[in-house]
Amino acid sequence: MESVSAAQPGVQVFKKQSQAKEVWRRFRKSKGAVAGLLMLSIIVLLLVFADFIAPYAQATQQDLAIKLQGPSFGHLLGTDAFGRDLFARIVHGGRTSLSIAVLATITSCLLGSALGAIAGYFGGRVDSLIMRTLDIFMSIPDILFTMAVVFALGAGFVNLLLALTLAYFTNYVRLVRSQVLNLAELDYIEAARAGGSGSARIILTHILPNAMGVIIVNTTLNVAKIILYESTLSFLGLGMPPPAPEWGLLLADAREYMRVAPYLMFFPALAIVLCACSVNLIGDGLRDALDPHLKS
Amino acid sequence: MYRYVIKRVLFLIPTILGVIFIILLTMNFTPGDPARALLGESAPQADVTALNHELGYDQPFTKKYVNYVKNMVVHQDFGTSYFTKQSVFDEIWPRYQITIKLAFMGVFLAAALGIPLGIYAAVRQYSLWDTIPSLMAFLLAAVPAFVLGMVFLFYFSLKLNWLPSYGIDTWQCYLMPALAISIPPAAMNLRFTKSSMLESIRQDYVRTARAKGASEHTVIWKHALKNALLPVITNIGLSLGSLIAGAVVAEKLFSIPGIGSLIVDRISYKDEPVIIAGTILIAVCFTIVMLIVDLIYAWIDPRIRAKYARTKG
C-alpha cells in the first residue's frame, strides 16, 4: 500500500506504509466504528475488572431482605427476586457470555477455514465430500442441532462451546472455499508451486493471508451473532447451568417480575444490545477499511 | 431445467437420510437407556434388559439407524414418549403445524417489511427514507428476537392491555410472536435488498434503460429490481433457520403449544424419542424449503438455467 502525502507544494513524497497502518487510518475515519470500538473497550474493561467493581459473591449470594429493589446508590441497577445485585449479575454474566462468544468464534473460524481451504485447494473428490457433508449439516437448523448436542452431552461451558462451533463453522467453510477458489487460479500461486512449495505451505503462507480481510470482517460480525445466539440459548435454559449468571438467563428470570420490576428486563437487554451493536459497528468499520470497494 | 429439478429433488433423499444420521449419532452419546427411562428407576434389571432388547436398543448403531428410518417411512412410527408413554407422532403432529405456521408467518412478514423498505432506501439513498430505516435495521440487527418479544409483551399486553399475552385462541395471539420473530430477519432483508439494489442501479444496463427513455418506474421495478432480488431470495431461504430458532423462543415466551417449546420442555425429562422426532421433522421441512428456494432461484436466474443446459442438458 502506498500513500501520497504532499509535504511541500509541488513535491510528492511516496512513503511505504504497512497494511495494518493503512487499515487503521481508514478505520479511524469512520465515526461509527470508533464509537463501537470505544463502547466495546469500556465493556471489556468492565468485564475484565469485574471482581474489583462488583465481587462475584454479590452476583450469586441471596439476601431476601433486599429483594426486588429498584436502582439505588447501594445497588446501581437494583436487585433481583433473590436480593442479588443486578449490576454484579450483568457484569459477571457478561464475562461468561462474551468469553463463550469469542472462543466459539475462534474455534468455528479455525475449523471452518481449515475445511474450506482444503476443499477449495484440492477440489475434486475431497471438495465434493466436504461440501456434500456440509450441505447436510446446513439442512439442520442451528437451534435444533444445538439443542440436540446440549441434550446429548449436557449443559456446560465446553459442550456449549462445541455446540456453537458446530452451528457456526459452516459459514467459514463456504467463505474460505470461495476465496481459495478465486486465489488458487492466480499466477503467483502457480509461481509458488513452480518454486517447489508444498500444498500446506502454499495454503498457509500464500493463499490464506490474502483471504484474511474477508475472514476478519466475517469473524467480527460473527461475534455479534454468537452473542445474540448464546443469549437465546441461555434464555431457553440451554446455556450454562445455574447459578452462573448469563444475560439470556437474567432475562428469562426477569419475565416473571415484568410487572413489578421491569428494570430487571431492561438492563440485561440493554447489555446484550449494546454489546452486539458495538461489535457490529466495528465489523462494518473494518469491512469498509479493509476493502474500500465494498463501501456502498 | 427439468433435469436440474429432478436432480435436486432426488438429492433430497440422501440429504434427509444424512440429517437423520447426524441427529441419531449425536443422540447416541446420551447416557442412559430407553427401557430404564420407560419403566422407571425401580424396575428390575431383567425387565429393563428384556425391553431394551425388544426395542432394539442393544443393536449396533447402523442397525438402529436403518430400523428408525424404516419405521419412520413405512409406519410413521417415531417410537413412544418416555414421559407421556404416548405415540410420539400423535403428540408431535398438531404442534408441528403450529410451529411451521408461525415460522412461515415470520418469513412472510420479514419479506413484506424488509424488501420494500430496502428498495425504497436504495432508490432514495441519503434521504430520510434511507437513513431512518437503515439506522433502525442496524439497531434491530443487534436485538435478539426474544428481547423484542419481551418488550412487546411488556408494552402491548401488560401496559396497554391490547393483545393477549399467551395462547393461540384468536388471530390476535399470533400478532406479537410473529412480529417479534420477523423483525430481526426483516432488518437483514432490508440491508441485503438495499446493498444489492444499490449495486444493480449502478449497472450499465440500467443506464441504458434510462437512456432509451424508459420511465423511472420501469427502470427501477422492471430492470433493476429483477437482478437485485436474486441474493435477497437466497437470504430469505437462509433466514428460515433463524426464524425456526425464533419460533422456538416465541413459543416459550408466549406459551404457544408448538414443537419447539415441546422439545425444550422435554429436554429436562430426557424424553429422547420426542426430541429426535421433533428435530427430524423440522429439519426435513427446512430442507424442503431450502430446495424450493434453490429452484425458485434457478427459475428466475437465466444464467443458472443456461449453465445447467450447457453442461448437463
Architecture overview:
Chain A has 296 residues and is mainly alpha-helical. Chain A has 12 helices and 2 strands; from the N terminus they run ββαααααααααααα. A two-stranded antiparallel ribbon of chain A has the order 1-2. In chain A, α2 crosses α12. The longest helix of chain A has 37 residues. The N terminus of chain A is likely disordered. With 313 residues, chain B is mainly alpha-helical. Chain B contains 13 helices and no strands. Classes of the chains: A mainly alpha (296), B mainly alpha (313). Chains A and B meet through α6, α7, α10, α11 and α12 of A and α1, α7, α8, α10 and α11 of B.
Summarize the helix and strand pattern of chain B as letters: HHHHHHHHHHHHH
Q: What does the main sheet of chain A amount to?
A: 2 strands, antiparallel
Measured between the Cα atoms of the first and last residue of chain B, the distance is: 8 Å
Average pLDDT reading of chain A: 83
Query: What percentage of amino acids of chain B are in beta strands?
Result: under 5%
Largest Cβ-defined interface: A-B, 43 and 55 residues
Helix content of chain B: over 70%
